[in-house]
Amino acid sequence: MNDNTIKCRFCKAKLEHTFVDLGMSPLSNAYVLGGREEFFPLHARVCHKCFLVQLPEYEKPQEIFENYLYFSSYSKSWLNHVKLYVDMIIKKQNLTPNSTIIELASNDGYLLQYFLERDMNILGIEPAKNVAKIAKSKGIPTISKFFSENLAIELSKQNKSADLVIANNVLAHVPNINDFVKGISIILKDKGVATLEFPSLLNLIRYNQFDTIYHEHYSYLSLNVVEKIFKSHGLKLFDAEELPTHGGSLRVYMTKQNRDISVSDTVKILLDKENVYGLNKLDRYIKFSDQTKCTKRSILKKLITIKEKGKKIVGYGAPAKGNTLLNYCGIRDDFLDFVVDLSPHKQGKYLPGTRLAIKSPGEICKTKPDYIFILPWNLKDEIMEQLSYVKEWGCKFIIPIPEMEVVD
User: Does any domain span residue 325?
Assistant: First the structure.
């Protein structure tokens, strides 16, 4: 791909400015059994015109999600999060069994199952066939296709317009962001509401979350940019809130532009918060690269000190973000003996790039490591509670982000 031809996926301006260059990296969810791997540039750029941070489309979504190994139901804290959301949104939007709820990127039915319990009219759209199959086994109607303007038109013709559209952590995964948002505007009823959750770009920059950058995430979103994108497709941002999930996320509420509905004060507060931090100025984005290099040096310095004392370290979790961190920092079996993960779909495979073996969490008891390196640091409290028994032999936890930290 010629760098001179790369254009902003939203406004089509030429991308001339680097946000951060993390070198060459494999696809973060491409867990391997062996053989060759393909590496791509992990070079994020920022648009000087609309300030959308983005990666070029080096790999088609059809390739990435053909056999996807992320299953939302393996995180108890995430299930609790969406269960609270379902209780809240039913009351807030006065939803009834006659309401139609459509979730985009519905994964294994982790969220829609709670609407199903209340006999709601639900539909999931999940492109990964292996993941959609699990949702269907739970009795959740699921279309195994990528959501698009064309699919939205098709569903509308079948009278499947939505009172509520849910899109959690999917907007960043969409290379054709205009097509996706246009689809939402088509599928939404005149008084319908769409809620979307996505990691906050403000938090990514503020808390050094460079590991959340990987090829499967095409865009990195601020509230200001999301408002611009949705407005260009006839949708209005009328409410928003900050969430603790994924290291700090935003939940936005959208409806049709011509609908008479008041905009909450929170929207202005959060938009102003981003601007005060400098997300409306190019310099703020360009400085992030130096932050990332500093974080990398800090992580490696601590790991080297630990290993020089002859201590054993294992990794916990095999999330996509962990693969970005390990590959960028060059952390392989010279630092970590192996990693463990709760998902049986990942066990027995190897992490992409670093080729660290993925084992069952039961290996921790067998090997009794001195340190556990928590890769999904956004779930650190849940994980440390699960692994509280390691204190029996004096094992400590390493938290790499936002700052390198060792916890007893």
Answer: yes
Partners of residue 398 on adjacent β-strands: 373, 406
Query: Which whole number is the average pLDDT over 248-275?
Result: 97
**Are residues 266 and 312 located together in one domain of the fold?**
no
**In a domain? residue 13:** no
With 60 as the cut, is the pLDDT of residue 1 above it?
A: no
Confidence of residue 58 (pLDDT cuts 50, 70, 90): confident
Sheet arrangement for strand 100-104: 142-143, 121-125, 100-104, 162-168, 188-199, 249-256, 235-243
What digits encode the pLDDT tens for the residues 81-118?
A: 999 999 999 999 999 999 999 999 999 999 999 999 99
CATH of the domain at 157: 3.40.50.150
Single pTM value for the model: 0.92
| Section 372-386 average pLDDT | 95
Q: Which domain holds residue 117?
A: 72-285
